């Protein structure tokens, strides 16, 4: 029969610490439009990165009601 030994508090806590981790994205303000975007990514609102246009966005035109 094997006897179980007690683990120290630090070993127990090291095992449990990964259950509480949450991922919080680091957001920065876009220099072109001011929207919050993840760092080192193209802005999803305007398509600019590092002050340069990377993705051309199409602007949806609002349909007016016919009278």
Automatic annotation (TrEMBL):
Keywords for the protein's UniProt record, in alphabetical order: Ribonucleoprotein, Ribosomal protein
Query: Could you confirm whether the keyword Ribosomal protein appears in this record?
Result: yes
A GO molecular function for this record? Answer: structural constituent of ribosome
One of the record's GO cellular component terms = large ribosomal subunit
Q: Where is this region: Disordered?
A: 1-21
GO BP term, example: translation
Q: Which InterPro entries match?
A: Ribosomal_bL32 (IPR002677), Ribosomal_bL32_bact (IPR044957), Ribosomal_zn-bd (IPR011332)
Query: SUPFAM superfamilies this protein is in?
Result: Zn-binding ribosomal proteins
Q: Where is the composition biased (Basic residues)?
A: 1-20
Family label: Belongs to the bacterial ribosomal protein bL32 family.
Under the heading PANTHER family, the entry gives: 50S RIBOSOMAL PROTEIN L32 (PTHR35534), LARGE RIBOSOMAL SUBUNIT PROTEIN BL32 (PTHR35534:SF1)
This protein's name: Large ribosomal subunit protein bL32
Protein's gene: rpmF
